[in-house]
Design a protein that fits this description.
328 residues, alpha/beta, six-stranded mixed β-sheet, globular, 42% helix
Length: 328
């Protein structure tokens, strides 16, 4: 008997939803397949009411084929944003039909929100004492309404294990790709990203999208230095080396880099080396020492420390999951 069963993703469609955000989970989770061509996810849309129309914030409604019972069979539940959350948004409390629907979710089900969908998770108590994010424009109000939530308004998404939240709108793509990467590895997620024509990983956080005085567009950017560094991740790269590529002082380069990318050059380099190590662990049988050298960490111990800090797993465990497990 074939034990294969796709991971069931239920997307909760609430009145006033944003059609773009509703479509993100279907686009991202509806693409990945295994080596035999079988879809790795089964994505369904459901409502808090019996099957029927759900209003959107646009000039059309959508016909949802599933009622709240679909939540009971889900492995992952995703709540996109809505502009008609009523008491959820105004008072931080669930409506009766929403509370009844969420009560159907099995313990241990992975929960995720896109943009202000985090209000639903917070009102249900799922975010109490946890780190979370939402759209930067709502972060202050969100924190005041839910003081027990540890709000981080600077990131694109927060992964707290079984509960994940994303920032505004397109950050839902980043979150869904992250979940695919977490479930099935970098190669599968990168393939989905290529087919969707989006970057597999965006640098920085949503702080870079908040309106601020912009740099003079005629001044040099840091793009050349980043491209140069990506070709030399296996080599020692000093901050002054990157600054010299743009003919800037280290201080000016560091400031401009953070303005453009959202993180410091050192943080960016570490992230790129982690992604390089993940790719090598998934796609090759190179020794840990060789992977560490090729990714620019120098030693296997250094690579282990960085992967543990970023992913919560050792390089050996990561390879066992995504190489031997057949996810590549």
């Amino acid at each position: 008997m074939d034990p294969f069963r796709p991971h069931r993703v239920a997307v909760l469609a609430l009145d006033g939803l944003l059609p773009f955000e509703l479509g993100i989970p279907h686009r991202i989770f509806g693409r990945p397949t295994d080596a035999e061509g079988r879809l790795l996810y089964d994505v369904v849309t459901c409502s808090v009411r019996p099957p029927g129309p759900v209003a959107t914030d646009a000039d059309f409604s959508i016909d949802v084929a599933h009622g709240p019972q679909a939540l009971a069979g889900a492995d992952t539940v995703i709540v996109p944003a809505s502009y008609e959350l009523g008491p959820v948004f105004d008072e931080g409390r669930l409506t009766e039909d929403l509370a009844a629907a969420l009560a159907l979710i099995r313990p241990g089900t992975r929960l995720a929100s896109i943009c202000t969908g985090a209000y639903v998770l917070a009102a249900a108590g799922y975010l109490d004492g946890r780190p979370a994010t939402t759209h930067w424009a709502d972060a202050g109000r969100f924190q005041r309404l839910f003081p027990r939530v540890k709000v981080d308004a600077d990131v694109l998404f927060v992964d707290d294990g079984d509960v994940l939240t994303s920032a505004g709108v397109a950050a839902g793509i980043d979150l869904c790709l992250h979940m695919v990467r977490r479930d099935h590895g970098t190669a599968v997620a990168n393939d989905v990203a290529r087919r969707t024509v989006v970057p597999p990983h965006r640098d920085g956080g949503q702080a870079q999208y908040i309106a601020r005085p912009v740099p003079d567009p005629q001044l040099a950017t840091t793009a050349t230095a980043r491209a140069w560094a990506l070709e030399r991740l296996h080599e020692p790269i000093q901050l002054r080396d990157m600054a010299e590529r743009e003919a800037m002082s280290v201080r000016t380069f560091t400031r401009r880099f953070r303005e453009e990318v959202g993180v410091s050059p050192g943080q960016w380099l570490t992230r790129q080396r982690i992604e390089r190590a993940r790719h090598l662990l998934e796609s090759t049988d190179l020794s840990m020492d060789r992977v560490a050298r090729d990714a620019g960490f120098g030693t296997a111990q250094s690579m282990r420390q960085h992967l543990m800090a970023a992913l919560g797993v050792t390089p050996t465990a990561y390879r066992r999951t995504f190489r031997v497990g057949g996810a590549v």
